[in-house]
Amino acid sequence: MHPSCATTLRKAAPAKINLGLQVLRKRPDGYRDIETVFLRIGWADEVSVQPPARRPEAQAAPFSGPLQVAPAEDAKPADALLQVPSGPDNLVWRAARRLDPDKGASVALRKTIPVGAGLGGGSSDAATALHLLNELWQLARPREELVRIAASVGADAAFFAAGHAAAFGAGRGDALTPLCEGGAPYVFPYILVVAAPPVQVSTAAAYALIEPNDRRRPDVRAALLSADPDRWRAELTNDFEQVILPRYPRIAAAKAVLEEAGAAYASLSGSGAAVYGAFEGETHAAEAEERLRRSGCRTWRGRGGGE
Q: What is the third-level CATH fold of 184-302?
């Protein structure tokens, strides 16, 4: 079907976790230089786009949307961890305007990825919307341009727009190198359990607490590809843990559950609030997930990376 005739275009917007995250130095533009490995996971929102509803000419406006936010089927309407703004504060709205400020669309977000969890849900929604609107509006913009637009609304969004299964991120996190192993896209070798406690962490506030350090930092790619959990625990570290875990007991408790349940490796994702654990077997992974759910966390269990 021709895109202009399609009623709705929709696509999953996956989350990510960070495998190691080093905050290296302050930048002149106010951001921080970092090094991390982004890993795509199966926890996902759904983004759908369609032509805007007709309006009287006097009400017409660029990107006339409106941006419609649909809650997840199992979410309570008042659940703050799934609520996002519907105007210029929304990354999807900003991305759409930068793609083409003169075109309109109705965009619906079905949220399942918690907001403020360090899983990149908002960035993924924006990147996914760029691809869908590029098709809906028949712009034929190349992927490289969509990645640049995505990076302008959020550093993590560049990873999602590029479509990598896993990538090494430098600079603000938007200088990306696909991560491969044996010539194929990297596949995480363990079962993942990802848990988001019912708290939100402000990324800006978290960065304000960090003292950058670029001296004698481990190579996160080499550490990860070693597939050695002992080396991961020593070298594949997240700098935000030292400032976030002491301030958020529920996050620290969730990580402790993963470790107590037998995770070979556990870490904070991004600046939090989500944590994840790597398990060798399904039994311990399932037990950990159940304990975390009972404690009030939203959870996801599965594999990461690959195509």
A: Alpha-Beta Plaits (3.30.70)
CATH T-level assignment (fold) for domain 3-181: Ribosomal Protein S5; domain 2 (3.30.230)
pLDDT digits (tens, 9 = 90+) for 251-307: 999 999 999 999 999 999 999 999 999 999 999 999 999 999 999 999 999 998 754
Residue the block writes with tokens 């996050």: 251
Q: 155 with 239: CB under 8 angstroms?
A: no
Residues in the chain: 307
Quote the tokens at residue 29.
Answer: 């533009």
Q: Where are the domains of the chain?
A: 3-181, 184-302
Instruction: Please tell me the distance from the alpha carbon of residue 128 to that of residue 134, in angstroms, as a whole number.
Output: 10
Instruction: Render pLDDT for 6-57 as a digit per residue (tens, 0 to 9).
Output: 578 999 999 999 999 999 999 888 789 999 999 999 999 999 998 886 655 5
123 residue type, one letter = S
- Which element (helix H / strand E) includes 294? helix 282-294
Q: What does the longest C-alpha to C-alpha distance in the chain come to?
A: 64
Contact 142/134 with Cβ under 8 angstroms?
Answer: no
Residue with tokens 């302050």: 26
The pair of three-digit structure tokens given for residue 124, joined into one six-digit string: 């993924």
Q: Which residues are catalytic?
A: 16, 156
The pairing of beta strand 9-26 with beta strand 180-181: unpaired
